[in-house]
Amino acid sequence: MLGEFFRKLKIIFADEALRNRILFLVGAIALFRFLAAIPIPGVNKIALDQFFAGNQFLGLLNIFSGGGFSNISLVLLGVGPYITASIFMQLMTVIFPKVKAMYQEEGEAGRTQFISISRMITIPIAILQGVAFLSLLETQGILVTLTPFAFALNVFLVAAGSMLLMWIGELITEFGIGNGVSLLIFSGIIAAVPAGISQLLFTATAASIPTYLAFTVAALLVTWAVVVVSESERSVPIAYARQVRGQGGNTYLPIRLLQAGVIPLIFALSLLLLPQMILAGLSAAGISWVTTASAWYAAFAANLWAYAAAYFLLVVMFTFFYTGITFEPKRVADNLQKSGAFIPGVRPGRETENYIASVVNRITLPGAVFLGLVAVIPFIIQGITGITALLIGGTALLIAVQVLIDLIRKIEAQVTLREY
Which residue, 11, 85, 184, 351, has most beta carbons within 10 Å? Predict the structure, then answer.
């Protein structure tokens, strides 16, 4: 096994194109981490640390900013605005047939136009979130009181930083390996691991050590379960009308159990954080109904079990939603029919489409429930132990494992392509 690893590693560094893709990925992540360490002007570091300590909302938000929010850096918004714009456009594919046709049926030109619209929507979202967050931070004393010009300049800086991250993420997707936005979030999670471990070591007491050990074991079991489920797939047998002489063995259509990967987690968490982000910023304006709505949502977010239930339902919903967008049974059935392939015992065309759709729905349900349960396990642990840090670590762990599996799978695909 170790020899196989070094053999693939040799292929990676020997192939110039693959090596350049990996180096580009490393360079882009290094640039992102550099930007996340540059704070905007006027930050009160002491007030920031006090405000950030034990705040569940800011901890989850810091995941999306890749650690940029904890420093109030140039990229404090992270890729959150782009994710929000992507969710909006994905929802539009369900509501408007023309948007769905542009995304699914018009080929590369349609997808390019779809992405361009998402970029344009990201700009006003980034500006609005920048105003909301900076207003909140100013009222909390984390930012010094700014003149209107200085405030507008900071809004421009953080909005531009978010747009820059969006661009870097798309460059990673095009010239690197893997999904750029997910990898930026992953890099922020990994960068926070050493600080999190040191904090646990310094704050641990004799009474809390068994709890931390139990959580470590649970984290390892969750990691193992996520890896197993992510690699699981349903193999649908495929036969050909004209069998090539000398060709032996069976052919299968693999359908993954977690077809949507990590995207439902990011979408669900983003949708839960969006109202809190907007209301927290608008409440600084002193509008009565906004203050009431903000207090109601804050109470909802503080209710651990209600928040966990909403998170679970959103993860399940987005798993089905994103699987339905990315995996089209009709297109698969048409491709099988065009290539002269068929599923034994199933007629080509409409029956094949219905059969594949039923298989996808059956395996997506347990996958979605598993993903939702793993996502809310840290909430349950927090409810039992009262340790809030575990919630952030659990959510980050789930995203990190999924992104890492996807990255390894894509690197192995590139290596296999070069072997043949």
Answer: 184
pTM comes to 0.77
Look up residue 374 and give its two tokens.
């793993």
pLDDT digits (tens, 9 = 90+) for 238-277: 888 665 544 444 688 888 888 877 778 878 877 887 777 6
CATH label of the domain that carries residue 197: 1.10.3370.10
Same domain membership, residue 173 and residue 215: no
245: tokens are: 């002489």
What's the total number of domains in the chain? 2
| Domain span holding position 320 | 207-420
Kindly tell me the sign of the dihedral angle through the C-alpha atoms of 294, 297, 302, 303. positive
List of residues 6+ apart from 360 with CB closer than 8 A: 255, 259, 323, 327, 329
Determine the number of helices (DSSP H) and then strands (DSSP E) in the chain.
16, 3
Question: 215 and 193 in one domain?
Answer: no
**Residue that terminates a domain, selected from 172, 203, 234:** 203
- Whether residue 58 contacts residue 69, with contact meaning beta carbons closer than 8 Å, is answered with yes
Task: Write the pLDDT tens digit of every residue in 53-67.
Answer: 655 556 666 766 666
Domain annotation covers residue 3? no
DSSP string for 138-152:
HHTTSB----HHHHH
Report yes or no: 240 and 341 within 8 Å, Cβ to Cβ: yes
